Amino acid sequence: MNTHLGTALGLAARHVPVLPLRAGKVPFGNCRACRRNACGGRPNMKVPGPCDCPRVCHAWAAATTDRAVLTGRPWAPVWEDTQAVAYHPGGAELTVVDLDNAQAVEWARETLPTTRTVPTTRGEHWIYRGTMRSVNAVRPDVDIKSSMSYARWLGPGTGTMTELPDVVRALAVKEPSTARPAPHAITAPARAGDCPHRMPAYLDRGIAMAEQRITAARSTVHTTVYRTFLAVLSTHGQCGCLTDTHIERLFTAAQAKGETARHCTDAWSNARTALGM
User: Fold this and answer.
1) Domain segments of the chain: what residues?
2) Model pLDDT, residue 97
3) In this predicted model, what pLDDT tens digit does every residue of 197-206 receive, in sequence order?
């Protein structure tokens, strides 16, 4: 078995969402349309794109614990070109403080609570139990990788992993905006005899099930959000009963899993387009 694939399967078995990286620590796509960056990703860039795939299957959003995905098409041929394995810390309920040189490591030793550490080519990863939003350059040569980010797997490390401390959370000094782009409410008039929501409980139950599906996602969060939006719209979006309040509930659930307001709006718009709304 390919060494990198074996590493990925071992991590996935421990509920750590993983993805393969090609040269330059750049992710592959994990769907047929995006395989080997065919959708337009720039090979020399650390972030692929542009990509119109509604699954947004690059980078952290590709991370999975599904053995069938890791060993099946279209990923099976990718392992031959894989240079490293990455994982989604947020999907594993972890936060990585990425210390990029000796000075950053020295700062961490003087400032942060001890936890599990992993040596990197230039510094160390300090790994805490718990999640937060990912932020680059919180101070010189220090990045935070957790939700909506990936980190290279460099081994299990040493030391006892401790809970994510407030001092690390405080490094993300810029609070995320609470303003959300207004979702497009479905304003199509209900047609006589076609509305399935004569009882409000039917629609409420559907929204609650959608919230639960998003909340339960442990990997491929962006994919889950898009598919859930698609399912809600296909079932409840044609008769005019879906309101801004219902949509806001879905956006709130998605953002609680690390999605940005922009990702939510794009996923909602892509779902509407896919259904011809």
Assistant:
1) 3-86, 90-169, 200-274
2) 97
3) 656 677 888 8
Cα 121 off chain centre by: 25
- Lookup: tokens for 269: 């718009």
DSSP 8-class letter at 139: E
Q: Looking up tokens 């810029």, which residue turns up?
A: 174
Rounded to whole angstroms, the Cα distance separating 45 from 264 reads 25
User: What is the C-alpha separation between 110 and 105, in angstroms, rounded?
Assistant: 9
Six token digits for residue 258:
């690390």
Task: Give the N- to C-terminal CA distance of the chain in Å, as an integer.
Answer: 46
Cα angle for residues 268, 223, 265 (degrees, 5° grid): 20
Q: Report how far residue 176's alpha carbon sits from residue 260's, in angstroms, rounded to the nearest whole number.
A: 9
pTM confidence score: 0.60
Looking at residue 44, its pLDDT comes to 39
Residue 227 in contact with residue 265, Cβ under 8 Å?
Answer: no
Task: Yes or no: say if 90 and 60 are a contact pair by the CB < 8 Å rule.
Answer: yes
Q: In whole angstroms, what is the distance from residue 254 CA to residue 214 CA?
A: 6
Contacts of residue 264, Cβ cutoff 8 Å, sequence gap at least 6 = 180, 183, 225, 250, 251, 254, 255
Query: Which are the contacts of 242, defined by CB distance < 8 A and separation ≥ 6?
Result: 185, 186, 203, 232, 233, 236
d(CA 8, CA 147): 19
The residue-averaged pLDDT of 181-209 equals 61
Examine the pLDDT at 103 and tell me if it is beyond 90.
Answer: yes
Phi/psi for 95 (5° steps) reads: -130, 135
DSSP per-residue string spanning 78-137: GGGG--EEEE-TGGGTEEEEEE-SHHHHHHHHHHSPP-EEEE-SSSEEEEEES--B-EEE
Structure confidence at residue 192 (pLDDT)? 40
